[in-house]
Amino acid sequence: xxxxxxxxxxxxxxxxxxxxxxxxxxxxxxxxxxxxxxxxxxxxxxxxxxxxxxxxxxxxxxxxxxxxxxxxxxxx
Length: 76
Hints:
17% of the residues lie in helices and 36% in strands. The chain has one helix spanning 14-26, and strands spanning 5-11, 29-39, 44-52. Strands 1-3-2 form a three-stranded antiparallel β-sheet, with helices on one face. Strand 2 and strand 3 (44-52) form a beta hairpin. Mean pLDDT is 84; it is low at 72-76.
């Protein structure tokens, strides 16, 4: 049985995109919007994307407000 929920996280690179793409090819669907934050000392953007395994009933997505980044101060 497939996991009903998966959260992918990592640097914003081609390996991250491939992992998400592979899960989509398996049948998972995107759940909500991706999140991104930036680590200024490392100069790296980190991303997160939730995916869910589809059920007979559609998944209810609850919108949330804009994210505030405590790392780079972008949410100010």
